[in-house]
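FAQ: What does the model actually see?

It sees only this:
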Amino acid sequence: MSAEAQLRSLGFYGRFHYYEAKVGANFRLNKQFSVSAFGGTYQTYADLGGNFDKPKINDEERLWLQINLHNEWRRIFIEHRYRYEARFTLQGFRNRYRYRFQLQIPLNTAYFTSKTLFATLSNELFLTDRATYFERNRFFAGAGYQWNPNFTQQIGWLYQFDYFVNDEIGKNFLQITLNVRLKKSEKAFFVPVNNENQ
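And it is asked to produce this:
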């Protein structure tokens, strides 16, 4: 099992406008293949310059299923993530489909074990079942430190392009992530996860 919480702002340390919390279960069938099921709440407030300014823009509950395919090439860990999201929003029910390609490279060890410093790159596409079908693209570049198989920190730059949003402020983000696994993991099978980027 794992849990994740995020807090977002449009300033370096102010103008908080979004938070989310989710919990779920991960099932690793073998070294290359895993499935997950999660549920969570996602709350977005108006961007008026303060913290959690009303009115609330979106109040969303979300259930999602995902499949992860893991491969290794030399020291590079490669992941393909396929996710289906059922979203219950203020605007009604919506489907969303996401695909993320991610590379992670341990820098001071041969594999991901305790005290591993690593670099990571990923790109994710967001699609819907409604025209125009393409919703968002998200690129991430960063570095992290895996303290042990169950606790990882990560920091990096996230660039987000939203097809329907013309917003210069909401394109570049500093992302800081703390990831905690609630159940002890087999260290040989797990690499740090950048579960959501939201």
